[in-house]
Amino acid sequence: MDATAAATLFAWLDREIWLISAVADGHRNGLIATSVSQESIVPELPRVLVSLARHHYTTELIESSHQFALHLLGADNLELVWKFGLESGRERDKFSDLDVGTTMTGCPLIRETVGWLDCKVEARLDAGDRFIYVAEVLQGQVLNFAPPLTTRRLMELAPISRLTQLQRSRHHQSYQEAELIRLWREQRRNG
Ligand SMILES: Cc1cc2nc3c(=O)[nH]c(=O)nc-3n(C[C@H](O)[C@H](O)[C@H](O)COP(=O)(O)O)c2cc1C
Known about the structure:
Elements: H1 3-11, E1 18-24, E2 27-33, E3 36-38, E4 47-53, H2 57-65, E5 67-72, H3 78-85, E6 100-102, E7 108-110, E8 115-126, E9 130-142, H4 151-157, H5 160-189
Antiparallel strand pairs: 1-2, 1-5, 3-4, 4-9, 5-8, 6-7, 8-9
The structure holds flavin mononucleotide.
């Protein structure tokens, strides 16, 4: 297998950047994700597909509440990327210095984004390193008509210190996920 082929093909793609918030048992948290896509083309039955690493604190909250809110970020939401995408919320409240609303499902809502969707999990696949969720969109709102922030735009706008942090964090996450994928495959092989 040419291990670089998949990495090269995916490197050509540009992905939108989302902030996902969740709440469970009085604890709130959020993270940054690119693994978000539209799952239904039926306008009156909107659905999304989201893939999250199982070790993230936000994932734990979703596992408990089965709900989350998606926020599509814009180019002026860079600070949210650093706050929500580079640190864990286990030790501190990432929302503490933000103006936070609440969605219908009780998830934290950030209004300085392009828009948000309140979602309820309908199906979940355990893929070893990640949980893959299919969720029903219950409600949503477009707040600011602005082009979304994408991974390519993020790389253009990020200062060098943040680029280094991003690389470190990605490397660390990929190391953790590799172990889990191998273990999951082994368990499936052994029945
Ligand atoms: C640009 C960017 C994209 C990311 N995409 C994903 C993703 O799609 N899925 C995922 O599980 N983590 C993704 N992450 C990593 C999490 O956002 C990050 O590890 C976060 O700190 C987890 O926070 P938590 O443990 O407080 O939930 C991404 C991070 C960044 C900066």
